[in-house]
Amino acid sequence: MAFASNKKWGLEHAVFAGAxxxxxxxxxxxxxxxxxIAKPVIAPALAARVLRRRDDLDTADxxxxxxxxxxxxxxxxxxxxxxxxxxxxxxxxxxxxxQTAYASVxxxxxxxxxxxxxxxRLGAWLGASGLLRGQAPTVARTLTGYGALLGTxxxxxxxxxxAPGAADVAGLPVxxxxxxxSWLGLGGLLFTGSDGLxxxxxxxxxxxKSRAAAEGAVLASYAAAxxxxxxxxxxxxxxx
Length: 240
Hints:
By secondary structure, the protein is mainly alpha-helical. It has one domain (11-237). It contains eight helices and two strands; from the N terminus they run ααααααββαα. The protein has a two-stranded antiparallel ribbon with strand order 1-2.
């Protein structure tokens, strides 16, 4: 099948998994040094995957994916300490660049926003924006702008036309092992959930243990989302 890679898993995936596990461990146990070493490796491992597949891709798609993952790496470094507002703003700005690159790839591959996917994301964005304006005004503008970009990417990723052979539930393609394009919708959903949990953690969680557990969940879901989105976009962008 044209959309199925003949190189399903590689060394870069092992590096990605190890870096993710170490990053989550560092967050949950409060070992920031572990995060400083491991977290900046997550996105570059996926960039290595993109570069290894570059012969299967258009140059523009390769450049967009690598640029997006480079921006994600910068964002990951800033977000090692998300409790500092200036770092949170810079991290969100970096991830905004990534979301723009991802949305561009999806648009190039024919994704279009659908009402069923857009409406719940719009509602979540409006709700989060209102909470941020009321309770965290110093980061509200930046995070609201980032949220709009995230919502755009997640809405495009949920387009069933990207994975025409996949079953869908409520308009969201159901992931399957045969066609990695079907992973895109879940990737966008996980990214939205991960970033939503950042807002919940910032606004509502005060205990050390609960904040550490939430940060671990943020990072685990973020890494899973990145893997699903990148693999899905590689499959969608593969030359037929």
